[in-house]
């Protein structure tokens, strides 16, 4: 079968490998779509993310092709999502309700862990199907389900925050994560949602997602406008940083009230400066948020099926598996204005 192998920075190769055969307890899935995640794009350019050979692809959907002996969680022909964050099920984080911070997550995640075979391939083998496969509800398209990684991060961040009904919310960065934060904050009962985003096209999406205001952080009059809106409390009760850029972190903190919460969701390799003498007197509650849990994927699938969470905001572009490297390069240059590029390894189901 066809697969794309990662050998190291700037080194992806289209290879022909044996189609895996499921052993006892394992499941083989025929990949319909696999998203190119930002993690894959970063790993293509930066050392230190994948320091090993592997076949990437940790967010895919497909049809169960074959099941090994003793598997009873799925059957041949089932539509499933594959590859949410791996976890070991036995460490302290896993046993205290935080599987997304499992200390053994990396080696256990398909398409991320050393030597794993992810879904940049025609078929993907799940060794822990109970943990890695999610039934896609009837009435939900595969193209919607494959967005679980795109939308899960923002959903988790709002659930992890102290946002309460009636609170004002600021979101800086309106990419896929920011849009998901906005939709979730709307559902959670936020009063005003003030979104900051440099690109006009994304500001339009922020309004569609449910933001009350979409402002340009580089425009002093827009920054003034946000301050006026938040004048009563001198900032939002909860702010979400969803771009990862140091400037966006600064805007986010500036827009938060004393004793308010700053949720740091965006991910970026650059350091940013926190001056304790300036921030300390505000007693900000800084909190990080990382990925999402399996339970949250089930919740999102239900919300999407019920029409309460929209996937229409997230545009996708389908391309053949062979174009993986070309598309990763385009994504890193910002040349593809879509929420997800989906690799299609075979015929579309
Ligand atoms: Zn991802
Ligand atoms: Zn664990």
Question: Secondary structure elements and their pairing?
Answer:
Layout: E1 2-8, E2 11-16, E3 27-35, H1 38-45, E4 60-67, E5 79-82, H2 92-95, H3 105-108, E6 123-126, H4 129-132, E7 133-135, H5 142-145, H6 148-160, E8 169-172, H7 176-187, E9 193-196, H8 200-209, E10 213-215, H9 220-229, E11 236-241, H10 246-254, E12 256-264, H11 276-279, E13 285-288, H12 294-305, E14 316-320, H13 324-332, E15 340-344
Parallel strand pairs: 8-9, 8-11, 9-10, 11-12, 12-13, 14-15
Antiparallel strand pairs: 1-2, 3-4, 3-6, 3-15, 4-5, 5-7
Helix pairs in contact: 1-13, 6-7, 6-12
Descriptive tags:
Quinone Oxidoreductase, Chain A, domain 1, Rossmann fold, six-stranded parallel sheet
Please, what is the CATH homologous superfamily of the largest domain?
Medium-chain alcohol dehydrogenases, catalytic domain
Give me the CATH fold name of the largest domain: Quinone Oxidoreductase, Chain A, domain 1
Tally of DSSP helical segments? 13
Bound molecules: zinc ion
Shape: globular
| Structural class by sheet pairing and helices | alpha/beta
- Topology, number of strands: 15
Contiguous uncertain segments of 5+ residues: none
Number of discrete domains: 2
Largest beta-sheet characterization? 7 strands, mixed
Secondary-structure element pattern, one letter each: EEEHEEHHEHEHHEHEHEHEHEHEHEHE
CATH architectural category of the largest domain: Alpha-Beta Complex
Strand content: 15-25%
The average pLDDT value, as a whole number, equals 94
Instruction: Give Rg in angstroms.
Output: 21 Å
Q: Percentage of helical residues?
A: 25-40%
The CATH class designation of the largest domain is Alpha Beta
The termini sit apart by 17 Å
